[in-house]
Amino acid sequence: MQRNGVGRSVSLTKHMQQNQAIELNDWLRILFGSTSPNFLVEIVFRAFFIYLVLLVSMRLMGKRMANQLRRNEMAAMVSLAAAVGIPLLDSKRGLLAAVVIAIVIVSIQRLIAHLTQNNPRLEAITQDVPTILVENGVLQLSGIRLTLVTRERLFAQLRSNSLEHLGQVKRLIIEPNGEFTLIEAPEPVPGLPVTPTWDTDFTPLKSQPAREPVCLRCGTVKPHTDGQAEVCLTCGEQHWVPALV
Fold first, then answer.
1. What structural domains and CATH numbers belong to the chain?
2. What is the distance between the alpha carbons of residues 24 and 44, in angstroms, rounded to a whole number?
3. Are strands 240-244 and 209-215 parallel, antiparallel or unpaired?
4. Of 188, 74, 85, 87, which Cα lies nearest the Cα of 127?
5. If you write DSSP's letter for every residue of 126-169 in order, what string do you get?
6. CB count, 10 Å around CB of 83?
7. 214 or 35: whose pLDDT is higher?
8. What is the pLDDT of residues 75-130, one digit of tens each?
9. What's the pTM value of the predicted model, to 2 decimals?
10. Which helix (H) or strand (E) holds 60?
11. CB neighbour class for 4 (10 Å; exposed up to 12, middle 13-18, buried from 19)
């Protein structure tokens, strides 16, 4: 019991000494840390070497790395960043480990690119597939739920392409890399407005209100049925709003 008490007191003393060594006005410790100031000269070489490793690695991964990153490219970049970050700042870590990790990551990346080049099924498993969000002026709710794209983000994408309602859209596809592909309808039909609901002062530049109401949830045009309260055949919603055409 006495030995345990002595051990605890020694540990507590060391802990207090470490805390006392940290002072807010100790600018040498804040600027240089626990390493020698000469390590700053070594960092210049380390940074230049790591930069060359990254440059060569991205060159070997192919031209797709310079474009929009897909899942495997993103995983490779994150892995490279984690590999080179520690030896760049830690004087106790050598640079050879970062080179070995870069070689492994580049090899895996090139292997996946080679296997998926002629194997659409494997590419769909590793990269995902395009998903249709709007088809012929109607929201594809299943695709929206699958991709977790919010309604406002979808409408914002259409507004950024100077569109005012869904009837102007033949296809809106979200690609595996997250980009949107828009195919406009050659002959627009009445569609659900894509302007924010709070923007009551908005005046359409090209479109005008149409007689046909559309479903507020998915944009399906209401069928003509003698004024009865209809349920949307696409989503089951019963709330109709004026369309634009």
1. 2-124 (no CATH), 131-244 (3.30.240.20)
2. 28
3. antiparallel
4. 74
5. HH---EEEEETTEE-HHHHHHHT--HHHHHHHHHHTT--BGGGE
6. 22
7. 214
8. 788 888 777 777 777 777 788 878 888 888 888 888 888 888 888 888 888 778 89
9. 0.68
10. helix 39-61
11. exposed
